[in-house]
Specification:
Largest sheet: none
Structural class: mainly alpha
Strand content: under 5%
CATH topology of the largest domain: MetI-like fold
Helix content: over 70%
């Protein structure tokens, strides 16, 4: 009992440390212009709660356009990741062909390569293919989406999910005349919804908060995604940290809503990566 209580105390302490910066962010966003946000000791509870910072940052910059751009990029990035990762994982999990293990390990090896390492060649490819916003809006979105349309983590996660499905289902489908694509689409995909939800949550969070790549590809302010737009707020209002905090709080809300909507699938989906072949 004492041991369990000690563990709970440690977990509560770690939770407070983790959520502390977010609480300070919300506190700063709710403080009025007359309050000193840099005072010591810090005051978490605002003296006068106000929502003027949220309306102010919304009017000061094209915040709605930033959100729309982010939703466009995130939507297509998530959809492509789910489809392409599942398509790539299916033969690695359910088919037998020469070099399958080598291909799988080669895919896994890319996880160890940071994006910053391949950023220069990828940016050159995007530039030479005219997938930048200086050509058109469509080209700018394409340059943001395609480099993140599939990744090794998604392929690994979906492969482990497919491996957990009994082969008898697939054999029964073959006896009924299903081809490989029908088995993937009609039999396996409905059974791996938890893994799809898990991949969707991770992809959504990564694409929504991505800053480095959009800041390289985009050059027009009307094409900025939300993280890049928040940086523009910081440069435009370097002394008004309340606006910056309000913009950051607004940017977190979609991630929370998306996670909560898929939470029941997410919990079970994260366990599928531990299934052994």
């Amino acid at each position: 009992m004492i041991k369990k209580g000690f563990i709970y105390i440690i977990l509560i302490f770690l939770a407070i440390i983790s959520i502390g910066p977010f609480l300070w962010l919300v506190s700063t966003a709710l403080k009025s212009q007359n309050e000193n946000i840099f005072q010591f000791p810090p005051q978490f509870i605002p003296q006068h709660i106000t929502f003027e910072n949220f309306t102010g940052v919304w009017k000061a910059v094209p915040f709605a356009a930033y959100i729309i751009n982010s939703f466009i990029v995130v939507f297509f990035t998530v959809v492509l990741n789910l489809i392409l990762s599942a398509l790539a994982a299916y033969p690695l999990a359910r088919m037998n062909f020469k070099g399958k293990t080598l291909i799988f390990y080669a895919v896994l090896a890319t996880i160890m390569v940071p994006f910053q390492v391949i950023m220069v060649p990828v940016s050159l490819m995007v530039l030479r293919l005219n997938m930048v916003d200086s050509v058109s809006d469509f080209a700018g979105f394409t340059g943001l989406i395609l480099p993140f349309a599939v990744n090794a983590f998604g392929i690994f996660l979906m492969r482990q999910a497919f491996l957990a499905i009994p082969k008898e289902l697939e054999e029964a489908a073959v006896m009924d005349g299903c081809n490989a694509f029908d088995i993937w689409l009609k039999i396996l995909m409905p059974l791996v919804k938890p893994a799809l939800a898990t991949l969707a949550v991770f992809t959504f969070a990564g694409a929504w908060s991505e800053f480095l790549w959009p800041s390289i590809v985009l050059s027009r302010q009307e094409m900025y995604t939300l993280p890049v737009g928040l940086t523009h707020i910081q440069s435009a209002f370097s002394a008004n940290w309340r606006y910056i905090a309000a913009g950051a709080v607004i940017s977190i809300i979609p991630i929370l809503i998306f996670f909560l909507s898929l939470q029941k699938y997410f919990i079970s989906g994260t366990m599928q990566g531990a299934v052994k072949e």
